[in-house]
Amino acid sequence: MKKSLLLIFFPQLLFLGCTPSSSEPLPGKTTFVFNFENNAEGWEVGYADYPVGLSITDSLKLYQFSYGHTLLPGPIIPKQSGIKVSGHNRSDDLFMFIRKKITGLSPGTQYQLYFEVEMASNVPTNALGVGGAPGESVHLKAGASAKEPVVARDNQNYYRINLDKGNQSVGGADLINIGNIGVTDTTTAYTLIQRSNPTPFSQRTGAEGELWIIIGTDSGFEGLTTLYYSAIKITLQK
């Protein structure tokens, strides 16, 4: 399959674009389900909140950016696939995310969104880490926008995303905090965890009935975080 450049990142940061999976919409309600068994289903990976001017060596060795569609780690049975996203938070604020455009909604319409995210994490709770805990200080956020999420250089020579995601534990107008990546105090191996928002997140679609969905981790832990998104369900209600 042909590869294409993702957002504005280094030439080696490539990802596969694939066909979305969704359920048939009910009146006023639409549900999209992504299981990533065969491919990434159109989701793309991006990074933000890191300095401009990194060389390819820096991105691969210093920040350890790494991602792709792959099998989940061995301890998880039965075998299944997901989207790996990995990076070392050298900037004390690294945001690693996946994004996906959904269409076919009612144009210019306010929707309430419910996110159900399943992911594989190997991070214990109540553990010590540089800058913050490796579990509780890595905040999982989910949101949506009619505007395409892109990363651009700011006036402080950092790459920032063009949405209001808040900062670390605090959500923003476009993304909300739905939990962290900690599993249990005794975690030593990758384990499936689920995160969701019991209170709906509200957003308005664009002129053609489109919304960009974005899910990612806003990190205060100054170390390496490697996660695998294994399933995502998004329910939208007018």
Folded structure, characterized:
The strands form 4 sheets. Strands 3, 6, 7, 9, 14, 15 and 17 form a 7-stranded antiparallel sheet that branches. Strands 4-8-16-10-13 form a 5-stranded antiparallel sheet, with no helix packed on it. Strands 5-12-11 form a 3-stranded antiparallel sheet, with no helix packed on it. Residues 1-25 have low confidence and may be disordered. It has 238 residues and is mainly β. The chain has one helix at residues 56-62; strands at 4-5, 14-15, 29-34, 44-48, 50-51, 66-71, 81-88, 95-102, 110-121, 138-145, 151-153, 158-161, 175-180, 191-196, 201-204, 211-219, 224-237. The radius of gyration is 17 Å and the shape is globular. 3% of the residues lie in helices and 44% in strands. It has 1 helix and 17 strands. The protein starts with a strand and ends with a strand.
- Rg for CA atoms: 17 Å
- Can you count the beta strands? 17
Strand content: 35-45%
Strand pairing plus helix content: what structural class? mainly beta
Q: What fraction, in percent, of the residue positions are helical?
A: under 10%
The CA-CA distance between the termini, in Å, is: 36 Å
How many alpha or pi helices? 1
Mean pLDDT comes to: 89
Instruction: Give the SSE order as H and E letters.
Output: EEEEEHEEEEEEEEEEEE
Which residues form runs of ≥5 with pLDDT under 50? 1-25
Shape: globular
Give a quick account of the main beta sheet: strands, pairing sense, barrel closure: 7 strands, antiparallel
